[in-house]
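Re: the 311-residue chain
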Amino acid sequence: MSLVNGKPHVRPCRSIPSDGFEDSQFMPSISALYDVLTTHLPLAGASALVPARHGHEPRIAATLRTEAPWMASAIDRIADQTAMSLWAGRPWLSLRPMLLVGPPGAGKTHLARRLGALSGCGDAVLSFAGVDSNAELAGNPRGFRHTQPCFPAMVMTRTGTANPVVVIDEVEKACVGNLGDPVASLLGMLEQSTAARYFDGCLAAEIDLRHVNWVLTANRLDGLPPPLLSRVDIIEVRGPGSEHAEIVLAALWRDIARDCGLPPHAMPRLEAAAEKMLLRLFRNTRSVRRLRRAIEALVAVSARHSPRILN
């Protein structure tokens, strides 16, 4: 760990060996594509760890508690670990790998992605549903037609941080296939001792994955191997209740705006009657997915009849 302008940074990869394409006009070299991994990347999240007021919990936990009060058990764990990091002189987001277990639509993935957004670490989601090879997570080594580094390295490259939030969604739905076991590949990345010197076949070099913040999600624990369960903090969560309808609606509205690449205020105006209908839908069904589809349909109708004027 080094200080750059007074802020903590690490260099994930010492160097990337040549692949012979450095002077090619037709194919970029791996060392050029992923050169950022050989620079000092920030360990982000310091401002999110500071208490909003003296004696209160870290700002990131307080914000999450306002946005998703039904996820109290997970937020309590986040609050404890972020407070400990700050106390120990590690002013960046540093969480033990956690596994959020709960029903579909409980907001597990949303909470994980908000961690990345609120902390400034950035985030990315990799779904294990139906995955039967380790290529999605471990990447493809040199010599393959579609060479790429492991997923965490790709996320670091995109976010420009050494401690992004990497979400493995529906981890219990992964399968073992002829091309490898994705869960087995995950084990080495979760273990600090091996993550510190993880060999990446595409980079042809070791990369430090110790600072990645891992959040796994699952609907149930059945079928998950004991070695995986021993490496994560298992946190059971419940879905939002009818009393959380307004909070869920606001959160989904922000998510849809982000997916459209817009700030929330640029979204179509939500009429009172439409808002009442959406709230009633959620209270009757308790389904976040159905509410999201209804919001998307409403936005699509508004967009068709009242197109945005672009400057």
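Residues 170 and 218 are 5 Å apart (CA to CA).
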